[in-house]
Prior knowledge:
The protein has five helices and twelve strands. By secondary structure, the protein is α+β, with helices and mostly antiparallel strands. It has one domain: Trna Endonuclease, Chain: A, domain 1 (3-Layer(aba) Sandwich), CATH 3.40.1350. It is globular.
Amino acid sequence: MKYPNGVKQIKTDDNHIHYDNRGMTLERDLNDTNAFYIDSEKAFIYKKPTPIQITKVDYPTRAKTVIREAFFKEPSTTDYNGIYRGHYIDFEAKETNSATSFPLNNINDHQIRHIRNVYSAGGICFLVVRFKKFNTTYILMAKDFLDFLDHNDRKSIPKTYFDEVGHKIKEKYIPRLDYLEVIDDVLGGI
């Protein structure tokens, strides 16, 4: 059964109420949106896999192979990349539980360098940040993100900065987070 807004209340034996599927995660929303873009041939944007090196594997049978030990081969760059109307697009997606700011320790130095490189090479680059307490999702263009980093010593970006220079992504049924609509609006329809 489909529940309104995906919210389902479940009472447990100890009479506590739990909420299942209270909202899809940002990553799932973006993956669903990207699948829609690909199916409609609007854009081809994919989640980048994190490169890992597998060191221990158990092979009881081919169907029951289990990875027992692995490590990250190299730091990953951003979460998503692809092509949209002949332009390279690259972005990082993050969620925060904070109601007042986005902690910068959520983004690694190598990711910031990557964002700088993509932006300086002329790619469309941005952050997608969801403030979970408000279920509000913003695009912060690389230019504005880097400008904040270059002119502030803060350890977080205030939510007010997102309200002032960021761009809200409207939630829809299909596609869930039509971030390309925002990109078209910001860049004047590429």
